[in-house]
Design a protein that fits this description.
By secondary structure, the protein is α/β, with parallel strands linked by helices. It is built from 3 helices and 8 strands, in the order E-E-H-H-E-E-E-E-H-E-E.
């Protein structure tokens, strides 16, 4: 569960530990495995037409990008507690809203960062129009936010519970 502000990302201890473990794996065993694949593909000869070599190099680029992302994220992370279960929308909460107060037109999502999502829930950043509109609202309250076309949309907060996964 995370909340991102300017250049600080708030993480629960669980999220921090999982991201740190991922970084250690990518920096160690995963990196060594990619290097071995590249070396193995090099042994096959002509690099221009060697699909295995090019695929391994592409995988290496993705791996190095993820290592950089995790390193930066963890350098600026603040570890904190999960949000209180008090019905107030906050980062780290699973929120259910009704569009225009219509109880049949609902959306349930995680208010947080996509960097750490351990479920299939749709995720909205606290800085997104919807996220900033509902952040701090209580269950039963209405929230308004601006759509990309400049119009305003109204939602009612139906539920807000801390994310448990």
């Amino acid at each position: 569960m995370t909340q991102t502000s300017e250049n600080v990302t708030w993480l629960t201890q669980e999220a921090y530990d999982q991201l740190k473990a991922e970084l250690e794996h990518l920096s160690g065993p995963a990196r060594a495995e990619i290097v071995a694949k590249i070396e193995e593909a090099r042994q096959e000869g002509d690099l221009k037409e060697n699909a295995g070599y090019h695929a391994a190099r592409e995988d290496q680029g993705k791996l190095e990008l993820r290592i950089r992302q995790l390193t930066q994220l963890l350098q600026h992370a603040k570890v904190g507690e999960a949000p209180a279960d008090n019905g107030v929308v906050a980062p780290g909460m699973v929120v259910t809203i009704a569009f225009d107060g219509d109880p049949d037109d609902t959306l349930t999502f995680l208010l947080g960062s996509r960097e750490y999502v351990s479920s299939d829930l749709e995720t909205y950043s606290p800085q997104s129009p919807l996220g900033s509109g509902v952040n701090g609202k209580k269950v039963g309250e209405d929230a308004t936010y601006e759509l990309p076309n400049g119009k305003k949309a109204s939602v009612r907060i139906l539920d807000a519970k801390p994310h448990s996964g």
